[in-house]
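dumping this here before i forget
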Amino acid sequence: MAEIKGRQARVEGLLDDVTLRMPDGAELRARGGRRQTRRRVALSATAVAVVAGAVVWAAVPGGGDGGRDVRPAGPSRSYGQGDTPYKKDGVVRLLRAKELPLYGTWHWQERDRGGDVDLPLGKVGIDDVGCTPTGGGKEPDQSRFTRMYRGDENAAARHRYAEFRRVSDTDAVVRHLRNVLGDCGMERRGKGADAYYTGTGTGPRSHLRVYLEHGRTWVSVVETVDDFDRSS
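structure:
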């Protein structure tokens, strides 16, 4: 204890010759203002970084929204490789019956015969209800798959999927399909994933729906035709 008191006395003796000057009010306010300014600049920089990160994240394509007749964002895929909405790990997965449009109305079932058959995309429609293109022409090389379905009251459906070697081949087939649909009076209705083409008026094609979807090197066509008197 005596040692500590002796040190305190020596320190106090040294401080006797030191002049302590406290800053005046103006200087204290100036120092406080500078600290606040530095704090605001740091917070603003942090906020800008956070917003910039959000903008970059929002700009990254999300792989498409599943909309019909819309080209999803993303790199071109080589022929027969890469995932698509209907292909995963190299395996093509066509729509199951419950995934088809109007399942709640027609209660689709996959047909026992003609499951995955080789049908070209040129003709649109099912059986005698559809659109046959005028003229000829060979379709580009493709790998294609088809599944047939039946529903209540003679309703029928089909899902066709094809992959192409080049983007230009996909574009040519999509243009062809749109021309065929337009030439036979089919109009596009609905928006997004619910969009489809159907015939105008009261003729047989008014019972047909065509759902067209495509990416850079693939095309999907889903067709449904409901029950009606086909003999008329």
